[in-house]
Amino acid sequence: MWKRTARGRELHFYLAGINNQNFLMRDRETGSWWQQVTGRAIAGELAGSALELMPNDELTFGLWKSEASQGHGQGQRRFLVLAPVPGHGDKDYDKKWEEEVAKYPVPLTFPGQGLNDRDVILGVAMGGQARAFPLARVRGASPVEDKIAGVPVVLVTGPDGESVRVFRSQWNGLDIELYRDTQSGRQSDGKGDGQSPEWQLLDSQGNTWNFAGCATSGPALGQCLGRINFLKDYWFDWKNYNPQTTVYSH
Amino acid sequence: MNRSENRWLWLLLGLLAVFSLSLFLIPAFVIRPFRHQSERALGLAIAVKRIAPALTVAALVGVVALGARLWRNSSRWVRTGIATALVLSAASAVMVRQNYFEWMFNPITAAGFVSADDAHLDDKEMVMAVRIGQEARAYPIVQMAYHHILNDRVADVPIVVTY
C-alpha cells in the first residue's frame, strides 16, 4: 500500500503487467512504469521516483472491526469496508485462490536457506539488513523476539491466532522483553471474533500490552510501542528483492 | 514497374508486417506470467511497449501504401499475402493499444464502501487495513487479490492499495 503522489503530483495507477509474479503498474498521468512490490518507477517520465509506503495491516475482519470500534471517541471515526464490485462474484473473488496460486510454478527458486519457494514469510528490512520470519514459526511461538541491525523487534500473533504485527520492543529507552500472559489462557478463544479483552502480553517492567502495541496497565499505561513495517510474502519473492536476507532461526 | 523492383517491395511489405507483429509479441512474450524476467528483458519489453503505438501505425501506413501499389499486377496468391500482411499489421496496431491484463483482472472504476456492520464478511476473512486520522478502511483480500489495484483517498490522503 502506497501514497500515490510523486514529485508533487497525485497519480492514479492501473495494472499493466506481471513481473516475476508481482505486478507492474502504470500511472494515468505520465504513463510511467512502476513495480508494485518496491513502489519504484522503473521507466518513463517518473523513472527513479519512489512512492512512500503507507503503513497498513493484514488482519482478520473480526479483529479489525473490534479494534476500529474500540475507545477513542468512536463517534467521530469513520470505518468503511470495500464493497464487492458489481458484476464480480465468487468466481472472481475466489476464497481458495491462495491454494490455487500455490500450485503454479515459481519463476525463481532459492534453495539452501532451509525454506521452500512458496513458504510464506514475514520480511522485515531495516538498517540495511533484511530478515525473513517463517509465518508458521511466528504463529507457533508468538511473541517472537529478535534483533535486526541492533534494533530489538517482536513479532506478535493476535488474539485471533491469524493476524500478525511487528513492534520495536523498546520503551522509555530500554529494551523490554515481552511474553505471553499465561493467566489469560489460550490466545484464541476459538471463535476468532477479534480482540478478546483478556488477551495481553506482559513485559519485564510490569506493563501489560494489547495487540495494538499499547500499554493497558503498568508504568507505560497509555503509551504505544513503535510499529515496524513488514511484508508478508513468498520466500522466493522476498529473496529475489532482498538477496542478502537472513532467515530467523532460534 | 519491373519484376525485380516488385520483389523488393514485396520483401519490404513482408518485413513491415513482421516488424509490426513483433512490436506486439516481444513484450507480450517477456511480460507473461509464471516466467522469470530478467531486468534487461523487462527493460527491453517496456521500451518496445512505449514506442509500439506510434511504430505500428507507421508500419500499417507503409503496408497499405505498398499493398496498394502492388495489388494491381499481382496474382491471387500474392494478393492473399498482401491481405494477410495488412490484417496482421492492423491487428498489431490495435493490440498494442489494449491493456489485456485488465481484461483478465477488471479494474475497480468506482469503489463502493459499506459500514463495518453492513459488510457481509466472515470474522475470519482477512482484510488489508489502513487507518489515517479518524478514518479506518478495510479491503477484503479476496477482492484485492483479483482487482490488484485500488486508487483510494482516506482522510484526504491519496493512497493506492495493492495486492
Describe this structure in words.
The complex is a heterodimer of chains A (250) and B (163). By secondary structure, chain A is mostly beta strands. Chain A has helices at 61-68, 97-101, 135-140, 235-241; strands spanning 2-3, 5-6, 9-10, 13-19, 22-27, 33-35, 40-43, 57-60, 78-82, 120-126, 129-134, 144-148, 151-157, 164-168, 170-171, 174-175, 178-180, 201-203, 208-209, 215-217, 226-227, 231-234, 246-247. A 4-stranded antiparallel β-sheet of chain A has the order 4-5-6-7, with no helix packed on it. Chain A has a 4-stranded mixed β-sheet with strand order 22-10-11-23. The radius of gyration of chain A is 20 Å and the shape is globular. Chain B has helices spanning 3-30, 39-71, 76-95, 101-104, 141-147; strands at residues 113-115, 126-132, 135-140, 149-154, 157-162. Chains A and B meet through β1, β4, β5, β8 and α1 of A and α2, β1, β2, β3 and α5 of B. β9 of chain A pairs parallel with β3 of chain B.
